[in-house]
Amino acid sequence: MSKSFNVVGTCYPEENYMVDMGSRLNEIGKLVDEKKYFTINRARQYGKTTLLNLMVRYLSSKYTVFSVSFEGLGDSVFEKESSFCSIICRLLYDAIRYGEVPALEDPVKNIIYDAVQNNSIEDLFGLSTMISDLCGAAKRPIVLMIDEVDQASGYKVFLDFLGMLRSKYLKRTTRPVFQSVILAGVYDIKNLKQRIRNDEEHQYNSPWNIAADFCVDMSFTAADIAGMLRDYAADKNIEMEIQKIADEIYEYTSGYPYLVSRICKLIDENRENQEIYGNWSQTGVTEAVKILLKEPGTLFDDMRKKITDYPELNNIIYAILFRGETYPYNLDNYAIDIGSMFGFITERDGQAVIANRIFETRLYNLFLSEEMMKSSTYQAGELEKNQFIKNGLLDMELVLVKFMEHFQDVYGKSPTKFIEENGRRIFLLYLKPIINGVGNYYIEAQTRDQTRTDIIVDYLGRQFVIEVKIWRGDAYNRRGEKQLTEYLDYYHLDYGYMLSFNFNKNKRVEMKKIVIGNRVILEVVV
Fold this sequence. Notes:
Blueprint: H1 22-33, E1 38-41, H2 48-59, E2 64-69, H3 81-97, H4 106-117, H5 124-137, E3 142-147, H6 156-170, E4 180-185, H7 189-195, H8 222-236, H9 242-253, H10 257-269, H11 274-277, H12 282-294, H13 298-309, H14 311-322, H15 334-341, E5 345-348, E6 351-354, H16 357-369, H17 376-384, E7 389-390, E8 393-394, H18 396-411, H19 415-419, H20 423-435, E9 439-444, E10 452-459, E11 462-470, H21 474-491, E12 495-501, E13 510-516, E14 519-525
Parallel strand pairs: 1-4, 2-3, 3-4, 11-12, 12-14
Antiparallel strand pairs: 5-6, 7-8, 9-10, 10-11, 13-14
Helix pairs in contact: 3-4, 4-5, 8-9, 10-12, 14-15, 14-16, 17-20
């Protein structure tokens, strides 16, 4: 059976191309050896279920592992203590019945069988007693894993269950108890506590405060991606610049597991472009990213929903993207905490930033889509777009010239009106219909602030770097020009673009070309 890249459900090493998780499993194994209880909180489609499956295999040589999931359980099982205790027993029973807990002793099996067949566990005290009996009868320490705990997140009985486990953990020197309890989900237990209380209370004290910190990095490094591609290339007997492609994929994804696998899957299955580009190339990665940026999916549906459900998160992401505002990465800030938990925000050099280029572009597109149909700037780009493509190539110089003319028509006599808007948003609204469907863009996070940003446009394999900035005088402008040439060096480009928004009363709207060394910059001032 040939392997494939998988983005749906659990990945299996014998069936799917996967990153080597050995070092991560070793880290987790140490936590279990040390009898730690902990929670694996990561964003959606971050590989939690796959990791739990690998952990079962890894730990089973030393421990008896029960791995269960709350996925697919109806709300009714969490509404009453008796039904919750019953479902816990049945989940353990099913794990035995389907052979997921091999070499389990009969006395342990019988305790669970009796509880299910006689429906004898009606409350948490009874469940606590049964757990002690199980752990006491087992020859090997028992590890309990529960996946998809978010299913129970709105119910008090689940927090009471955690409180019971906490009580048993604190008495572990005198009573039999699980070696380790591992919960997996998106929400951390602090947020579970908040979700079932009135908004005005916002109590964060948790029955899970015994949990150890889970600091294992589940994102993929460029080296991880290269290792996976090396396995793929060997299986398929093809040649590729493995490290270069891995670096390119990492640049777009920052190692977000689903995004990495999805790009690889798109490249692997894109037979159409094989002869034109050679799928496993920098152009092949760009083509896959272009598809990913447009396609629907549960991850992006969830992103849109969360942005709507959490106004604070919406506001801070908008401010980072369009106003260039910076915020310390402080998880005491509710919006940053929520954004980090959902995987949209991460930390870089102490600042809160959007987690990766794919998310950033999807978020830009999401915000821009809300005003496209009512924006005269978008409509202008849509009407004029055909003139910018010449012999299949994008004429970026003409794009900037026409944008300058449009901007003067709309905002030239009313700069105050524009100040309430934002330069990069206006320009992206103009640019988007021109490159839509053929090219894509992303914002270079390292250069984005309130005064300048770099937009990188990729159109049929050709890249354009456009610095968008607010005019701050000649000296500042010269520094910007120098910085842009350095950035052009990074991209191995000879030609760059600068779009400056000048609010001085006596400003001169102009276009000029500047030569710095062997680099040329086209600057447009509006």
